[in-house]
Every structure is written in structure tokens, then in C-alpha cells.
Amino acid sequence: MKKLFALLTVFVFAIVLAGMVCADERSAADKLASGREYLQTLDQKIIKYRKLGNAAVVTDLQAQKKSTIARMKVWKEEMEAGEMAPPPPPRPVAPPPVYVRPVAAPVAGLFGLGLKTGYTVGYLAGNQIVVGRGDLILADPMGIGPMMGLADDAIAWKLGLGGATGKDINDLTKSAMPIFVDGIINIPADMMGGVASYVGGGLNYVVYGSEKTGGSYGGQVYYGIKGDIGLGGDSYVELAYSIIRSGSSLTTPYSMKGIGINIGTELTL
Predict the structure, then answer these.
(1) What is the 3-state secondary structure (H, E, C) of 196-224?
(2) Bridge partners of 182?
């Protein structure tokens, strides 16, 4: 009976050891820990069966102990090799996609000249004055916008020639042909709720008038909003105050002036 019990015990330990060795996916450190526990169990069994005088079982248990120690040496080498191995390189992280804003092709214009122009018709209330002008619109050649902390295209200039007819301050009908020089400051659209707008102002000088002679200096200031309504360029509406001096005398210049509304559009020639 004792021999049968001893053989069953050896068989159970053999099965346990086989389960530890075969298809074992544990780490080397876990295997070493289990091996130490198993050695303690074997030592206890060896002492027990040595006291019982069962030399055959003791011999078999000592053979298992020797085999387990050999396996533990292999596990220890695997664990030390894993600790010395450099960590795997980090997986490359794909950079975020870069959005490239498409650049619009330059527009040559209606006649291929690439010149930006503006055409305006205005009406000055009070004196029933009609003013028309055509302008050459120039970019900021001196870079004043960036010097003021504004965008590169925040400043523009207008050089224009126009005509005006109406009544002057003496209720006399006058006509004049002024030249205009204006400066424009474009207001960022986000400051105006998404509406493109600008302020402008400048001087005018009448080169020919009703008196068949030159006049004098005048001026204009205005605020405008603009947008593309399908006329080939940005169209605009302006609230303005203008003074056009069509002639002069020794005492009183003949002026056409008032608050008015201008409408117009920009075209590239």
C-alpha cells in the first residue's frame, strides 16, 4: 500500500512538472518563482520519505530536484538576457496631416494687363452733385501695413481721374474734372463680423472746371463695405463726405460739397 501511494505521489509530481515545462508561456521570472516553490515541496517530500525508509522514492525525488535546478538555470539565463536587452524602439507616430491652402492662380485680367482698377459713381446730397471717377488701385509699395502691425495687403492707394457736376455753395451750377489721390486701410473682416470693409480718404485737385481753368484743392473721406456680387470683381458701397473746389475767386472758392453715397466695383484689366 505504501509503495502504491508513493508511486501515485511521484506520478502526480511528474504531471505537475510536465505542466510547468510544456506549453508554458509565463515569463522567466515567473518560472523561477514557481521553481523555487517546487524545490521546497520536493525537499519536504525527500525528508518525509527518507524518514519512512523509502529509498526508491527518495532517489526519484532527488532526480526531479536535480532536473528542476537545471531548468531553473536556463530560466535564470533567459531572465538576465531579457533584462540586458535594449527596450524595443517606440512605434513611429505618423505626423498630423498638414493642410496646404491652395494658392489661387494669378488673374491676368480682362486685357491681360494685370492692373487693378476701380469705378465709382457718387451722389452728394444737398447740392445735387453727381461725381464719377476711375481709379488705378496700387498695392502698398512702401510696406506701411507691416510697419503698423497690419497685414501685407492692409494698405492700398488710389490714383484717379473723375468728373463732377452740380450746384456749388452759391447755388450756381458748376462742373469740374478733378484728379484724386487716396489712401485705403482695409479693416480685418473678423473685426466686423465677417464683413470686408475699409476706410479711406485723400485729396483732389480740379485740373479743369466751369471757368475753363483749374480749381483748387479739395478732399474726401469715406467708409465702405465690399464683396463679390458677380460683376467681375469686388463691388462696394461707401458713405462719404466730399469737397470739390471747381474754381476760386479772391474771396470765396466755388465749392461743391456734402455727404453722399458712392457705389462702384473693382475690375482687373
Answers:
(1) EEEEEEEEEEEEEECCCCCCCEEEEEEEE
(2) 158, 202
Distance (Å, rounded) from C-alpha 206 to C-alpha 208? 6
Q: Which domains does the chain have, with CATH numbers?
A: 1-83 (no CATH), 116-268 (2.40.160)
Residues 6+ positions from 183 with CB-CB distance below 8 Å? 155, 156, 157, 158, 200, 201, 202
pLDDT digits (tens, 9 = 90+) for 34-90: 878 888 888 888 888 888 888 888 888 888 888 888 888 887 887 777 766 566 677
Cα dist. 207→21, 103, 226 in Å?
108, 42, 30
Backbone angles phi, psi at 206, to 5 degrees: -80, 115
Rg (CA), the chain: 49
Amino acid at 203: L
